[in-house]
Amino acid sequence: MTSTYDGLVEQQADITCLLLHHVQTPLLPAARDDTVYLRGVLPIPPPAAAIRLVTGDEAAHTPDRLTAYEFPLHVNGQNLTAGDLLAILRTLTSGPHYFSSDNVTTMMGMTLVRPDPTTIASAAEALDDRALTILRCVAQPFTGERPDPLLRGFLFLEQDLLRLYLDTAERPDVLAVDVRPSGAVTALIAALPTLITEKERKVEIDTDPHCSHRMDLTFW
After folding, report:
1. What superkingdom does the record give (predicted)?
2. What is the pLDDT of residues 23-60, one digit of tens each?
3. Rama region for 108: left / alpha / beta (φ>0; ψ in -120 to 50; rest)
């Protein structure tokens, strides 16, 4: 069970890390009037082996302007990589797609779609994607050491409110940490590993299905 859980955690964290640049870089390489960006990655807790990718325009910070797509992490016995999910997501956001009502619902105020990856033609990989793979591997080679805390996901809640989904070695579940990008970012990042160990800062949360506890560091 532990190895299965660890594998799920690491897969969600890897996908989050490899897709982070699409917070600023459009999902679709070609210029469009309705350019779509990544606005969040939501780690679904076990036993479900899945992840949710949240999309919207560059200025989208409210649930009514966001769409989340839920994907399984394994299809036909194979792991879906960040590249696989990006290719599928590009297809889904490149034009209109229609889903049955059984596959569309709401979650945290946003539209949640559950597409079947096996029925969607993946968009072709861009050369810039492959170039980025080279650059990332050279600049940040894999060391085998797991960061602590580990970033499993994130979500833009407001224009100046960002939720981090963190996994720590001491906790078997996800901790949501709310921060403000306009704050003292450098100091916050340095203090974060210590701050998240302070139990008095944590409160239970039942409005977000991707975590069990929340910590408010917006005014730290």
Report:
1. Bacteria
2. 999 998 665 556 899 999 999 988 889 999 999 998 88
3. left
Find residue 174's DSSP bridge partners. Answer: none
Exposed/middle/buried for residue 12 (C-beta within 10 Å: 0-12, 13-18, 19+): buried
For the chain, the domain total comes to 2
Q: Identify the domain boundary among 109, 139, 169.
A: 139
How far lies 138's CA from each of 16, 57, 131, 132, 141, in Å?
19, 31, 11, 10, 6
175 CB-side CA count, 13 A: 25
Q: Has residue 144 been placed in a domain?
A: no
Specify if 177 maps to a domain. Answer: yes
- 62: its two tokens: 């409210």
Say how far apart CA 102 and CA 157 lie, in whole Å: 26
Amino acid at 37: Y
User: For every one of its 220 residues, what pLDDT tens digit does the chain have, with 9 covering 90 and above?
Assistant: 455 777 888 899 999 999 999 999 999 866 555 689 999 999 998 888 999 999 999 888 899 999 999 999 999 889 999 999 999 999 998 888 889 899 999 999 999 999 999 999 888 878 888 888 888 888 877 766 778 889 999 999 999 999 999 988 776 689 999 999 999 999 999 999 999 998 899 999 999 999 999 999 998 8
